[in-house]
Write a structure and sequence with these properties.
- The chain has one domain (64-225).
- Helices cover 74% and strands 0% of the residues.
- The protein contains 9 helices and no strands.
- Helix 4 (74-96) packs across helix 5, helix 4 (74-96) runs parallel beside helix 8 and helix 7 packs antiparallel against helix 8.
- It is globular and about 55 Å long.
């Protein structure tokens, strides 16, 4: 009975996630606005809606938290949201005389909407499965959700990236349970919409080093304090 409920709840979650993704990227139904930022959010809203709908239908408690294991919300907000906005925004302003605050914030919210579904709901539903099996299921469903089925080398690389991302972001989630943290990691690639070049790779490296270092520092000091 438990397995049946899990299968049905995941099916409902995924059907809604796929439906809204299709409406956002393959259909004109959501093209009611020319606002690029709203269009970005609509492309990522499906997993969150699917998670909330499935939780309601099957009476599943969602353990969603912005701060997670951190003592207050300010720490993850500063480290995983404000810091990348300031860093990337400042570099962009120096090079292009433009500070894309709204775009960067929107990308983080987009990542948050996805992570409510992939980590907050789906990873929790699959947490009692063997780790490799859980990672594989999430990565494949995440890949299919993007609705890009061309059998090309770049798509196979993208699938590999999603496997690594599922493992890495999953580790961040299981360590922090902070949606702000996982949304930050999720958004790393989406920050750079014009591709990854030397500047972008340097910024990603800086962010990863600071974020991972902060998580290790906080975990050690928190355990020491306890």
């Amino acid at each position: 009975m438990k397995e049946k409920k899990r299968f049905l709840s995941i099916s409902v979650f995924y059907a809604i996630a796929i439906l809204f993704r299709y409406l956002a990227v393959k259909n004109n139904l959501f093209h009611f606005t020319d606002n690029q930022l709203i269009q970005i959010l609509l492309r990522g809203i499906g997993p969150a809606l699917g998670a909330f709908a499935s939780a309601m239908v099957f009476n599943i408690p969602l353990k969603l938290s912005l701060k997670g294991n951190y003592q207050n919300i300010l720490l993850p907000l500063l480290i995983f949201w404000i810091f990348p906005i300031v860093l990337i925004g400042t570099v962009t302003y120096i090079q292009e005389a433009e500070f894309p605050f709204l775009l960067l914030f929107t990308v983080l919210v987009y990542g948050l909407l996805e992570e409510i579904g992939w980590r907050g709901f789906l990873q929790e539903q699959l947490k009692d499965l063997p780790k490799l099996q859980s990672i594989t299921i999430i990565a494949v469903l995440w890949f299919i959700w993007h609705l890009n089925f061309e059998f090309t080398g770049s798509n196979m690389i993208f699938l590999g990236v999603l496997f690594l991302g599922t493992w890495g972001i999953g580790k961040v989630y299981s360590s922090t349970y902070s949606l702000l943290a996982v949304a930050g990691f999720h958004s790393l690639n989406n920050f750079f919409r014009n591709g990854l070049h030397e500047k972008e790779l340097i910024l990603i490296t800086i962010l990863l080093a600071i974020w991972i270092g902060f998580m290790i520092w906080y975990k050690r000091n928190y355990k020491a304090a306890v």
